[in-house]
Amino acid sequence: MSDCCSGGCASSRPPVDPAYRRILWIALVVNAAMFGIEIVSGVAAGSVSLLADAVDFLGDAANYAVSLFVLGMAAVWRSRTALWKGVTMGAYGLFVLGAAIWHAVSGTVPEHVTMGATGFLALCANLLVAVLLFSRRNGDANMRSVWLCTRNDAIGNVAVMLAALGVFGTGAGWPDIVVASIMALLGLSAAKSVIGQARVELRAA
User: Fold this and answer.
1) Which of 56, 85, 119, 138 is the most exposed place for a label (fewest CB within 10 A)?
2) What range does the record give for the signal peptide (predicted)?
């Protein structure tokens, strides 16, 4: 029993799915590339929602890298990793809320064309990853955290494009602030879900 709790129980190690490993590598490369694109675009456009999405892409790239590392490890280690990822997802949500407040106070009006174009490119990238991950959305806490991150990203990308339309129509920055706040709340909600499932799995392990 002690060997199992320390991650040494061979029977708790699932076979590594080569297809899932390939999906994680694709997701890692796509998210790392989109982080670079969005961080540059977010700074250029003065958009807090784009910057929030860029940070999210960076977090997801790390998420996929960690998931690749623990793939095939004992269940207890996968659950511990999922718990850590849930905490980082929550930290991301708090960071975005802080950034949204700062932009609201400073009265920043972002550049809507860059916002919309970058948001559309990010949506295409996330839809590709979401399609690849869809069949594994109901796996363990680790797989679920990967799926939730991708799902939230796609929703966030649509919201960024709507924010760009709102900035264009109003000439004000509040649509950007509202969308960034919604993205933060999505991150906090996903964090709660992942942490809850990971804790249940850890107790069972």
Assistant:
1) 138
2) none
AA identity, residue 87: V
Q: Could you tell me which of 66, 23, 22 has the C-alpha nearest to residue 198?
A: 66
The predicted structure's pLDDT at residue 74: 66
DSSP per-residue codes, the chain: -HHHHTT--GGG-PPP-HHHHHHHHHHHHHHHHHHHHHHHHHHHHT-HHHHHHHHHHHHHHHHHHHHHHHTTS-HHHHHHHHHHHHHHHHHHHHHHHHHHHHHHHHT----HHHHHHHHHHHHHHHHHHHHHHGGGTTSSHHHHHHHHHHHHHHHHHHHHHHHHHHHHHHSSSHHHHHHHHHHHHHHHHHHHHHHHHHHHHHHH-
Residue with the bigger pLDDT between 76 and 132: it is 132
Q: How large is the C-alpha radius of gyration of the chain?
A: 18
Confidence of residue 64 (pLDDT cuts 50, 70, 90): confident
- Burial letters for 68-90: b for 16+ Cβ neighbours within 10 Å, e otherwise? eebbebbbbbbbbbbbbbbebbb
Distances (CA, A) of 48 to 1, 21, 125, 146: 49, 33, 20, 24
pLDDT digits 0-9 by tens, 16-60: 578 778 888 898 899 999 999 998 998 899 898 888 888 778 877
